Amino acid sequence: MKFSLSLSLGVLLAGCAAPRTENVRACCRPHLAMTADPATQGSVYELAAKWQDDAGRAVQLSDLRGRPVVISMFYAACEGICVITRDDMKDIEASLPAALRSQVQFVLVTLDPKRDTVKSLRSYRSQEELPEDRWRLLRGDPDSTTKLAERLGVGFGRDGSGRFVHSSQIVVLDQMGRIIQSQDGVHANLVAAGKVLEQALDTPVQ
Questions:
Q1: Residue 137 lies in a domain
Q2: CATH number of the domain encompassing residue 114
């Protein structure tokens, strides 16, 4: 899946940075959650790119292997769709039974690694009170960022005015990094996400 930084992208996603829920355009509103068969999906962990977390450590996506993952892409300065998506992820986390919650990893990967330095991501974690045992904040080089966005189905770029615009996906990965659910839009389906995560934990790792 390829995303062009063309005028069509700007038109499609131009409203996605709206700072209030009621201003979010139709392109960013909830769509029906799609559940995928992991047997037909390649692993996101196949991407060879290297990443850096908000503690400055070099990491690879494959380091997440062994636990279900809820992942989305954002940038720290975003005051619109990223805020809603992050809060949706927090709601998914809060909706899980404690025993299940401790086994799930939540990951935010910046779309703007130039501005989202290790220091700024660390500050973001502190500001949003994201616990280190369950939340990972990652940054990579532009090529790695683009490849991951393509794999997760995230369109992003800048519009004619230079504003950063992007789509919104919350993606659930199984223990092997295969996409088992993708929710496109804001206000995640907590029940659907919880069921998929529970099923993933009940499924033997292959």
A1: yes
A2: 3.40.30.10
Return all residues near 33 (Cβ < 8 A) that are at least 6 apart.
181, 182, 183, 188, 189, 192, 193
Whether residue 171 is contained in a domain is answered as yes
State pTM to two decimals: 0.78
Identity of the residue numbered 181: Q
Q: Are 148 and 60 in contact (CB under 8 A)?
A: no
Task: List the one residue out of 49, 59, 73 whose CA is nearest residue 169.
Answer: 73
Which value, to the nearest 10 degrees, does the dihedral of the CA atoms of residues 9, 171, 93, 13 take?
Answer: 10
Which domain does 124 fall in, by range? Answer: 7-202
List pLDDT tens digits, range 97-146: 888 898 999 999 999 999 999 999 999 999 999 999 999 999 999 999 99
Residue 111 amino acid letter? L
Is residue 2 in a domain?
Answer: no
Q: Which of 96, 130, 107 is nearest to 200 (CA)?
A: 96
Q: Which helix (H) or strand (E) holds 124?
A: helix 118-128
Sheet with 105-110, side-by-side order of all strands: 34-35, 179-184, 169-173, 69-74, 105-110, 135-139, 50-53, 58-60
